[in-house]
Amino acid sequence: MLSPLGDRAQPKPNDPVYELVLSQFQGDLADRLSVEQMFILIDGVLPFEACLYYQVLPLFIEGSRLNLGMVFPNDTSAADYVRRIVSYHNYSLVPRPISSEALQGALTAYLNYSGKKQAANQRQAASNNRPNRYSARSRSGQNTNPDIQKTLVVDSPENLGDALLNDIPSQEPPTPPPHIPFTPSSAQPSTTLQVGEDDAPSFESPLQREDLLTADPQNWQQQKNESQELPPEPPQLLSPLPEIEIQTNYLADPVEVLTTLPPKELLQELLGRVLYAGIGRLYFERQPQYGRVLWSQNGVLQSVLDRLDPATFQGVLDELKQLTHLPLATVQTTKQVEVERLYQQTRLLLRFKLMPTEYGEEATLQVLRGAALKFHQQQQLANLERDALTIAKQLQTKVSEIRDRARLESGLGGAKLDALPALNQLLKHIEEQLGSLADEEVTEE
Fold it and tell me: Could you tell me what percentage of the chain is helix, strand and coil, using 3-state DSSP and rounding each to the nearest 5?
């Protein structure tokens, strides 16, 4: 497979923004990194949305090894996903720890670079489509030999970044929220938290699974009788998404006013800002004597709510726990939950992560939509497919065991197997569902 580091238009190497990006990396990485190569790797190997979702960053290629920056080096799900992606390019993976600030700075710079490149392409396309000012007679005098006409060179099909970025707002949204206070600050969350292998994200889903393979032996006869006739259609497992209702009264007021609000009202104001557009994030940072909240949009810090009363700070976290159906008890290990909601007829993914620290709980709330939400849904679908295949294999194993026991045990060779009609009916329904899925897949193509 061709390397993504071929002949492509590259970002300017001496841009001060890129120098600032490199300054976020520590140790030997700062000397070995190339911002241009990182951008090309995001375009051709690991898409922006995957970097954002898994908190990873392709750093550089060394022979056939891809050096991958990871905010959470112990996140096995992130490493497994990236390993599957890079295997198609015949790369192996070398994980390297990086800070969340380094990841945020690199992805923000990539968004700026991609937006400028897209704008330049649009200007070029508009220029190519502009009518020629020469008269018809002048045009007729030009050489029309097709062998010497200008050739339009298009990007490589390996350039995957633009397709994902189509759904992501540019760094200059068309209409900002009315009079939202903006307090620039260089403050960033001060800690980089490591997530253990047992802290894999838990997904809230309206799906409720039933174990089709186990039954209580004491109630087997009753269950056997009840299972002889299955419903003609499987039950509807997906319920409509709940809708978030936000009421804001202080969008036009200075951000300091928010510190006087009770927790429930304060959360409404914060959500009203972070749900507005793009990829929003709230950082809830715990200090020894107070808390503070940092609000960013598309990786760019917007404002800081500082010196928040500890009781109010914890109250907001408790409100978020209720919103995401987490217990109110203080967490002892990092917990993460992801829920989908509707906001103004738009599907959103809310990713809420709680982390224990020396002074109490800290948290982040990230809002994903568009391409980022689509990526999340694809991951959920892949997980469901893997679960379904595992259950199907278990069912096959159980049926084989029933067959073998019926053949080997004396006196059971000609015994009537009461579960066969129910199993046949179940398999019939599964075949119908698989056929329906196959038809839908063909229709979409």
Answer: 40, 15, 40
Beta-strand relationship, 280-286 and 291-297:
antiparallel
Q: Tell me what pLDDT residue 214 has.
A: 39
191-212+232-369: CATH topology: Beta-Lactamase (3.30.450)
Sign for the pseudo-dihedral over CA of 218, 224, 225, 230: positive
Please report where in the chains the tokens 């269950």 appear, as a residue: 223
Helical (H) or strand (E) element with 346: strand 346-357
Q: With contact defined as beta carbons under 8 Å apart, do 62 and 94 qualify?
A: yes
Cβ contact 61:42 at 8 Å: no
Distance CA 376, CA 50 (A): 9
Cα dihedral sign, 392-395-400-403: negative
Q: Token digits for 151?
A: 């050739």
Residue 262 contacts residue 315 (beta carbons within 8 Å): yes
Residues in the chain, total: 445
Handedness of CA 88, 351, 100, 172 (dihedral sign): positive
Structure tokens belonging to residue 205: 């889903």
Range name among 181-185, 338-342, 402-406 with the lowest pLDDT average: 181-185
- Starting from the edge strand earliest in sequence, which strands make up the sheet with 280-286, in order? 202-203, 335-343, 346-357, 360-368, 280-286, 291-297, 300-308
Give phi and psi for 208, each to the nearest 5. Answer: -120, 115
Six-digit token string for 300: 């760019």
The ranges assigned to domains in the chain are 1-126+161-172, 191-212+232-369
Pick from 54, 86, 56, 83: which is nearest to 68 by CA?
56
48-104 per-position pLDDT tens digit: 878 888 899 999 988 888 999 999 988 888 888 888 888 777 788 999 999 888 888
Contacts 24+ apart (CB under 8 A), 254-259: 254/181, 255/181, 255/183, 255/303, 255/304, 255/305, 258/305, 259/305, 259/307, 259/308, 259/309, 259/312
Could you read off the pLDDT of 5-53 as tens digits, one per residue?
543 444 445 567 677 788 888 777 777 888 888 888 888 888 887 888 8
How are beta strands 335-343 and 202-203 bridged, if at all?
parallel
Q: Residue 130: CB partners within 8 Å, gap ≥ 6?
A: none
